[in-house]
Write a structure and sequence with these properties.
With 294 residues, this protein is of the alpha/beta class. It is built from eleven helices and ten strands. It starts with a helix and ends in a 27-residue tail after the last strand.
C-alpha cells in the first residue's frame, strides 16, 4: 500500500471512531482527534447554531469554518458537500437550495454515511442524499453541479490536486465552490508533521497557503477569493504531547502559523488572479492574499 493510501486509511479509521464519540470530545480537540484540551473549548469550529437549516444531531463539531454561509447557494441549485460527515453542511445547504434543489453528500467513512442518512430520515428530508465514495473520484456525473462546499476535509487527504480537478469536472460552467480548510504559513516542527494523530486531526496534513491557492488555479478555476481567514491556536496541553522545552517555545513564538481559510472559486468565468467579487456578504471579510492584509 502506498503512503497516500496509508494516510487515507488512517483518516477512515479515525473518523469511523469520531462518528460515535461525544460532541464535547470533538469540540475540545483538533477536528475530533489529536488530543483533547482542558484550556479551550471549540479549537477549530465556528458556531453553526444561528444558521438556518442547522440540525443539532448532525453537527459533530468537526469543521473549521462556515462554507455554506459564504457559498451563495440559490433556490433550485444542485449542491455537493465533500466529506459530508453526519450531514451538517448538507442540511444547511438544503435550506438554501429549497425544495426544488438537491444536495448530495459524499463521504468514504461508512459510519458517517449511516449517521447522515439516519439524520435525514428523522428530519423527513427527501431531496438530500448521501453517497459512499472517494472525493478523489466522486460518484457524480460531469457538469451536473452548481455549487460545491466542504468543511475541513481536503487538508486531511494527500492528493489535493486530484480533488480540485474532480471539483472542476463535476461543476457546471459558471458553477463555483466555497471550501473551508486548514493551511500553513511557515513549516511545522517535525514532531507535528510526523504525528499520525495530528495528521488525522487536520493540522499535519495541511499545506502552505500559497501552494493551496496555486493548486486551485492550476485546476483551472477563476475568481479565486479568500472569503474568511482566522488563526488556529493549538493549546499548550495538546502541544506538549509533541513538543517540549525550546522546541515548544520556538513554535509558539516563531513565524509559523496555522490558519483556517474559506476560499471561493468559479469554473469557466475568466478573471484576474485572486480578484474579489460581489459574493453578497461583508467584503471586509475578503482579502487579496497578495496584499498581506490577512
Amino acid at each position: 500500500m502506498s503512503k497516500q493510501e496509508d494516510l487515507k486509511q488512517l483518516v477512515k479509521e479515525k473518523y469511523s471512531q469520531i462518528a460515535n464519540q461525544e460532541l464535547k470530545v470533538n469540540l475540545s480537540s483538533c477536528c475530533g482527534t489529536g488530543g483533547n484540551s482542558e484550556e479551550v473549548y471549540n479549537i477549530m469550529t465556528d458556531d453553526y447554531s444561528e444558521l438556518k437549516g442547522h440540525v443539532q444531531e448532525a453537527d459533530l463539531g468537526l469543521g473549521c469554518g462556515l462554507p455554506t454561509q459564504f457559498a451563495k447557494i440559490q433556490p433550485g441549485n444542485t449542491v455537493v458537500d465533500l466529506g459530508s460527515g453526519a450531514g451538517n453542511d448538507a442540511f444547511i445547504a438544503r435550506h438554501e437550495t429549497g425544495p426544488t434543489g438537491k444536495v448530495i453528500g459524499v463521504d468514504f467513512v461508512t459510519e458517517m454515511i449511516k449517521k447522515a442518512r439516519t439524520n435525514a430520515d428523522k428530519m423527513g428530508f427527501n431531496n438530500v442524499e448521501f453517497r459512499y465514495g472517494d472525493i478523489e473520484d466522486m460518484p457524480i456525473s460531469d457538469g451536473t453541479v452548481d455549487v460545491v462546499v466542504s468543511n475541513c476535509v481536503l487538508n486531511l487527504l494527500p492528493a489535493k490536486d486530484k480533488i480540485f480537478t474532480e471539483i472542476q469536472r463535476v461543476l457546471k460552467d459558471g458553477g463555483h465552490f466555497s471550501i473551508s480548510d486548514i493551511v500553513l504559513k511557515g513549516e511545522l516542527p517535525e514532531a507535528l508533521r510526523q504525528s499520525a494523530e495530528m495528521y488525522a486531526g487536520c493540522v499535519a496534513g495541511a499545506i502552505q497557503k500559497e501552494d493551496y491557492l496555486n493548486l486551485i488555479e492550476q485546476a483551472g478555476f477563476n475568481n479565486i477569493t479568500i472569503q474568511k481567514e482566522k488563526p488556529i491556536i493549538i493549546p499548550d496541553d495538546i502541544l506538549i504531547n509533541y513538543l517540549e522545552g525550546a522546541a515548544l517555545d520556538s513554535f509558539k513564538n516563531g513565524k509559523t502559523g496555522i490558519f483556517s481559510i474559506t476560499v471561493f472559486a468559479q469554473k469557466g468565468v475568466a478573471s484576474s488572479k485572486y480578484k474579489a467579487i460581489d459574493l453578497g456578504f461583508d467584503q471586509g471579510a475578503v482579502c487579496d492574499p497578495n496584499s498581506g492584509c490577512c
